[in-house]
């Protein structure tokens, strides 16, 4: 275990940024999101949850796949280069990291998504333990321990110091890069903090949310439930929940006409949108109820069915905080629980 | 005589002209051999009222450095009142563009009748000069269309 | 609140209305959700009306107008402007609505409480309609906190249009004046900036946009059956912040589309997950309309002619923009 004082962090950022891109929580216009560090930007390690999850660093909301240009009478196709430079994502929380594990299941399974795989290969993940979990957090339900994050390097902020613990070879390499900035430290302070965080986690209002009945085998029963008919009603059909989610992985591929060529790009899609999975024959989910159901069935039934029981939710609670209609996955789980009690 | 070379800024200017007055005005400017820069690209519309605010933004997106809309003089609209609506719309849109920091000289509305070939060429000369002084549009550009 | 529940139960039981559109208590004090109630039992158990019921229910009446029977809808004073505007545009059916104008003491924004540094919020008291609504007591995982009610209020409440309901069948509950600022002060501040400053301000705000479309979907003026931005034939990124131009175009066009129809209900700014002050676009149009074409408040008067579908011969020329501009 090593440590560096909080005041000296800008030196660490500067040191890392000299040789690679450093992505970390930055406050812009009053909101904190992961973004590339630049001298003078406002790094914000206080905010527990960035608005968007850090999945952007590996699976950007919008990315070009290839460009077609008209050159005289020929079409010139230029594929987008894959990420070939190392970069660091600093300050990811344990739940965000679990989110990456979910994305890995999707994008690293055959056929491998080369864009994602290249970013995973070159990305160094430095996690940060949560000091003050929020009431909307329910990572415990999915077996995530916010006091004990993994990744390539794990860090903790205790009493004015950032404690730094390399875990993987990638992490060791990064530590080596800035080794002059660290001092050796005992892990007593970190252990004490972990105990207190774990105690808070036990007290969180959603800590004991039960996922009983939610698994890959529950397809027919959950799909045909009448509960959806009531639940979806306040849903506005916006994409907030899907776009702030660390595990939502659906995307759309579109062409953009630049006037002298075409840019083919992919962008996140949302199952809440009317053109989601639109095909030549139209759309097979044509009511908001169906679209709403899709989101939760995917996270709690379809995904575990295909991935050895792994849920595609990590309990980060972003949707709990951000839904304009105050709907969220917790309310869905609770509504089904209640339904089963009354039956 | 100035020589064209790669470093010289040649603005792209889109002029939306209504079919009944301004387009005919542009025609008259041409047949009267009145000069105005070739940087102005005219798009003929049935009436100035046809110009959707989106057209203006699209023009900027695809690389225009200035956008001008020409129609019949108020009261002379072929469809009686089209240009009155267009006038309110463009006033509000231009005001919004000014509000988000786009230089207000990049947008203009001018009423040009079919008999005003001179006014048409004068207006275009003035407008092109204005855009020259403002330089390239960078605040409303879409980078994807640039390269 | 009990009075409201009793009245709703009565109207539901005697068959005057087939359902009640109100708010359902959430699992936290601060997250009630808009909900339809079709039986007395649910009303008794789940109906809630407190400081966190900021959602404007008028847009849900578009769908409710297609249902059998009347819907009792609870509208706050500002929501009635939206309802009346929808009525003017023939998007809702007056015959299908039984409007209870509910009192309002200003609505709360949980984000403001969080911004005050209050974390781990377990419950909030002092936000019931019967309360004086001047101080909130917040129980958190990290101890009890308190915050003046006004500090936690939505921005729109500090520039409230007044607590008078524009359309209703009956009124219930007390209101409290919350206006404390000039509605156009912020717009004016921006107008006075240089072009560079204006651009930098909007660039930093709009660069946060994630194109979730929450602002559009919640907006009572955005009532098109199919939005132009949802068209697959329209060359826009729709759901991606693919280029900085995209966000600007989306927000300008959206604000323009609702210009002269936007009642300034503030829902767009309330729902934005990135806290973009979207009302600044709408208010700019409202301010311009007021100054150039005469005072106009959408939704205030069902007979008034809308500013963008009318004109006078003497209207100002677009060149006025350059003359008025301070940049």
Largest sheet of chain B: 4 strands, parallel
Q: What oligomeric arrangement do these chains adopt?
A: heterotrimer
Secondary-structure-based class of chain A equals alpha+beta
Order of strands in the sheet with the most strands of chain B? 2-1-3-4
Helix run count of chain B: 4
Q: Tell me, what's the shape of chain B?
A: globular
In the CATH hierarchy, what is the class of chain B? Alpha Beta
Set down the secondary structure blueprint.
The complex is a heterotrimer of chains A (343), B (147) and C (327).
Chain A (H helix, E strand, L loop, with lengths): L1 E4 L3 H11 L1 E8 L2 E6 L25 E10 L2 E6 L7 E6 L1 H14 L6 H9 E6 L24 E6 L2 E6 L2 H9 L5 E2 L3 H16 L15 H5 L3 H5 L8 H5 L6 E7 L3 E8 L19 H19 L11 H5 L6 H14 L1
Parallel strand pairs in A: 2-6, 6-7, 7-8
Antiparallel strand pairs in A: 1-9, 1-10, 2-3, 4-5, 4-12, 8-9, 11-12
Chain B lengths: L12 E6 L3 H10 L8 E6 L7 H9 L4 E6 L10 H18 L7 E5 L5 H18 L13
Parallel strand pairs in B: 1-2, 1-3, 3-4
Chain C lengths: L1 H12 L5 E6 L8 E5 L2 H7 L13 H5 L6 E5 L1 H12 L8 E6 L7 H6 L5 E5 L9 E6 L2 E6 L6 H4 L11 E3 L12 H7 L3 H12 L7 H5 L25 H14 L9 H5 L7 H15 L26 H5 L3
Parallel strand pairs in C: 1-3, 3-4, 4-8
Antiparallel strand pairs in C: 1-2, 5-6, 6-7
What does this structure look like?
The complex is a heterotrimer of chains A (343), B (147) and C (327). Chain A is an alpha+beta fold and 343 residues long. Chain A has 2 domains: 2-203, no CATH class; 216-338, no CATH class. Chain A is built from 11 helices and 12 strands. In chain A, strands 3-2-6-7-8-9-1-10 form an 8-stranded mixed beta sheet, sandwiched between helices. Chain A has a 4-stranded antiparallel beta sheet with strand order 5-4-12-11, with no helix packed on it. Chain B has 147 residues and is an alpha/beta fold. Chain B has one domain: Rossmann fold (3-Layer(aba) Sandwich), CATH 3.40.50. In chain B, strand 1 (13-18), helix 1 and strand 2 (40-45) form a beta-alpha-beta unit. The mean pLDDT of chain B is 93. Chain C has 327 residues and is an alpha/beta fold. Chain C folds into 2 domains: 2-107 and 161-172; 185-324, no CATH class. Helix content of chain C is 33%, strand content 13%. Chain C has helices at residues 2-13, 40-46, 60-64, 77-88, 110-115, 155-158, 185-191, 195-206, 214-218, 244-257, 267-271, 279-293, 320-324; strands at residues 19-24, 33-37, 71-75, 97-102, 121-125, 135-140, 143-148, 170-172. In chain C, a hairpin with a 2-residue loop joins strand 6 and strand 7. Chain C is globular. Chains in contact: A-B, A-C, B-C. Chain A binds chain B through residues 256, 258-260, 263, and chain B through 62-63, 142, 144-145.
